[in-house]
């Protein structure tokens, strides 16, 4: 297949937090579909460069790595500026970077609350505000939520994380009306447990297996089982999908 006929040929995608995990998988998948990709990282420069080298070697898309701490609105906006500087435009914004602290009501403090809402809600919202004027009809904005938001067995220590991701889903609903009038779509992907550092951090093997057993297939999926959904939402043919949170969890909750 000629690269000019690939579904994302000529498109420019920015994926926050994309040096590893789901973000890295999305970057590689979009590049394989022909997109030029900005791989964002904070500390993992080596991992980011490895993703970039993989993409540039395969020859279907292009990639650069940009260091930016997206816990900061100003850094998020700079990341957008660097994307436009490198590739001339932005067509696809994927707000993958996230933060998760666990704590029940008695355990949480104001700092943890503020940090989770800053990274998971506030910065993605204001990056969208800055990106929207740069995007033309057919642009795609994809947030990340979590299947925890509709899990009846949600652990009580997911209090603030669930609240932040619930806010993301409401932002998606409202922005789809606002930006939909401009021809942009706004959606969210809500995975269940995925084999990433974010999910595995601080969990024992027994606890990870507990979550695996909640899936019909009794396993935890890889990031490569989530990225195809982002690839679909990024394509032109997904244009009638707008304002939706797509739960990708293998039946973890239904």
Structure report:
The protein is α/β, with parallel strands linked by helices. Helix content is 42%, strand content 14%. It has a single domain, classed as 3-Layer(aba) Sandwich (Rossmann fold). The chain has a seven-stranded parallel beta sheet with strand order 3-2-1-4-5-6-7, sandwiched between helices. The radius of gyration is 17 Å and the shape is globular. The mean pLDDT is 95.
Q: What is the CA-based Rg, rounded?
A: 17 Å
The strand count comes to 7
Strand content: 5-15%
Strand order of the largest sheet: 3-2-1-4-5-6-7
Terminal Cα separation, in Å? 38 Å
Tally of separate helices: 8
Q: What attributes does this structure have?
A:
254 residues; alpha/beta; Rossmann fold; seven-stranded parallel sheet; 42% helix
How would you summarize what this structure contains?
Belongs to the short-chain dehydrogenases/reductases (SDR) family. This protein has 254 residues and is α/β, with parallel strands linked by helices. It has helices at residues 21-32, 45-58, 73-87, 110-131, 159-180, 197-200, 205-213, 227-234, and strands at 12-15, 36-41, 62-67, 92-95, 140-144, 185-191, 245-248.
